[in-house]
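Task: sequence design from structure.
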């Protein structure tokens, strides 16, 4: 008996039926901790509980111990590729998530074309290692809004996996498809970098998202850079300007910035963006300089959004995603700077969920939306929580 296969199959069978560990525990008169041990491969149930599990889940004992997971329907792969990390989710057409893998950046403009393709292929290989094949994948990748980049990545993946339907596009698609039923909207990603697109129901027009050299507002990089710049200015002015925020930035840095300025040039933009949380903490404590940095970046991003809406026929709805979308101070500042009547929707679903819906759309796969969503988020959360344990 392979205890690892049993653990994976038990978790997949339970999740695909929308059951929680405590639901199974109650039916079998055991503790939820016991179910958790079975699903982690730390113990096997006795014969009586094995038979009870088989009957409750509608799965044969042979299937529970098979060396492939219990699945319902065809499998797909959704990928959300960014400038900081890349998330891979394998799921079946009933919404059951079987694998979640997180790797490093895959934005070709950040890591280079070869490195980006290497990360994407590595993730696909990891997902495929112990699972049946999937029929199609959609990779929404930051930097692939440029057609030449998307074509190159798609060609590389299609050559590596000739039996799989491969689709590659910008990660903006992941955000756009995370909210069903929108015909027109502006799509904004405010993460390590920022991007703004207008969707008119048929085409995506870019108004921001040209890289950190040219997009100077509305990203974690911009917030972090502004704080570092203020800190250096405060040092030069003997801390008469911005002293409180400067002290916290230097605390996070581990010393005076001026003593090791080369560090910023030796590392990539994600390092500078890592100082953004310090700004938000200081702003929450009332630091005026931190508040001003947030306000300036939100106002700048709002100007780009309003320009997109004035040029493109994309309506009054704005979808906001990315790390800064989880910062209430930034969201509030953005709302203050947008035109009256704007419907700002903070996309709470993980961007890879939008990639999942996109691959279903591209393959003309019809699903029960409510049942799919319930199963997707339940099984996705299960796997994320398991990784944290």
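Answer:
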């Amino acid at each position: 008996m392979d205890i690892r296969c049993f653990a994976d199959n038990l978790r997949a069978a339970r999740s695909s039926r929308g059951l929680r560990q405590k639901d199974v525990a109650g039916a079998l008169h055991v503790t939820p901790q016991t179910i958790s041990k079975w699903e982690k491969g730390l113990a096997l149930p006795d014969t009586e509980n094995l038979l009870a599990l088989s009957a409750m889940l509608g799965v044969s004992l042979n299937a529970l111990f098979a060396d492939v997971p219990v699945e319902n329907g065809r499998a797909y792969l959704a990928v959300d590729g960014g400038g900081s990390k890349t998330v891979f989710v394998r799921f079946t057409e009933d919404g059951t998530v079987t694998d979640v893998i997180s790797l490093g950046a895959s934005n070709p403009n950040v890591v280079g074309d070869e490195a980006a393709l290497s990360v994407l292929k590595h993730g696909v290989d990891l997902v495929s290692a112990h699972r049946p094949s999937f029929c199609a994948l959609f990779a929404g990748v930051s930097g692939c809004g440029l057609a030449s980049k998307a074509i190159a990545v798609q060609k590389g993946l299609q050559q590596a996996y000739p039996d799989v339907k491969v689709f590659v596009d910008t990660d903006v698609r992941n955000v756009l498809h995370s909210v069903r039923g929108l015909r027109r909207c502006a799509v904004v990603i405010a993460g390590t970098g920022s991007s703004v697109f207008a969707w008119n129901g048929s085409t995506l027009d870019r108004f921001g998202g040209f890289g950190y050299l040219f997009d100077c507002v509305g990203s974690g990089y911009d917030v972090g850079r502004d704080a570092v710049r203020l800190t250096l200015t405060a040092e030069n002015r003997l801390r008469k300007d911005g002293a409180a925020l400067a002290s916290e930035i230097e605390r996070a840095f581990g010393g005076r910035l001026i003593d090791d300025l080369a560090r910023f040039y030796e590392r990539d933009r994600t390092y500078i963006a890592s100082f953004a949380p310090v700004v938000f903490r200081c702003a929450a404590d009332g630091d005026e300089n931190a508040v001003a940095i947030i306000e300036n970046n939100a106002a700048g991003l709002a100007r780009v959004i309003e320009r997109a809406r004035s040029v493109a026929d994309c309506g009054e709805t704005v979808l906001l995603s990315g790390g800064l979308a989880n910062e209430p101070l930034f969201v509030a500042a953005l709302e203050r700077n947008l035109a009256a009547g704007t419907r700002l929707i903070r996309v709470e679903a993980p961007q890879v969920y939008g990639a999942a819906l996109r691959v279903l759309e591209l393959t003309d796969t019809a699903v029960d939306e409510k049942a799919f969503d319930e199963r997707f988020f339940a099984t996705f959360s299960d796997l994320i929580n398991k990784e944290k344990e």
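DSSP finds 18 helices and ten strands in the chain.
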